[in-house]
Here is the input.
Amino acid sequence: MSAAEKKHEPTQQKLERARKEGQVAKSSVFTQSFQIVGVVVGIRMADYLFWNTTKILLHYKEFCCSPDLYEWTVSWAWTVSATIFCALGFGVLGALFGEVVQVGVQVSFKPLRLDASRLDPSKGVARLGSEFTQIWLLIVKFLGAAAIAFFVISANVSHLSSLWLLPAHSVAQSASSMFCEFALLVVGFWLLLGLLERLYKRFRFLKEQRMTDEEVRRESKESEGDPHVRSQRKSLQRELAFTELATRVKRSRVVIVKRKDSR
Here is the structure.
């Protein structure tokens, strides 16, 4: 169906049906930005709970002179696993928060249902073409991250050359500071990019959801009823009202009529 025939804005009912089917305008980059924030928060939380420079150095020393390698390995494995799970958990929470910010709380299992039309080669090619148009966004996203990394390293290059003279605790603090600066700039850039992507996708989504004259008539029938049925219902209501009025006139003893001037 050509876009020229779809000249009416989508109704709220159609948008609600599309929402129930999982069709919403949202930006994956916007969600990924909050996911990065969650991962950074998780790493910082794990650093506060499970790590400190003194403990790391003592572990290395114990590895060199302690015969109990098993306990050393288990201790490190537990700490690393806890850090990974903490980062992943906060990352998932960040992604969920990004989704809720964009589309609200939405639970739809229709996108997970088996759909035979997905096996249609022609539709598969169309989906590939649609995905291919988003490659530019992926390129811009990673080029921006690379440019930010270059900027952060260039701004701290004079400080990096003297890190080997500093104690391990100072090196860890400097690395953590640079990582947080990089993550903050990447999140800001991706949020801006995600906002632009969401505006573009919402424009495309509303354009795809536009309605033809036939769809508008069908929507009107579903919401207000068939016009012929409404006309018959109003006619029946007028007939009942007239019958009731005639009955009251017959039962009344006095009827007052307002005379109209014939001028």
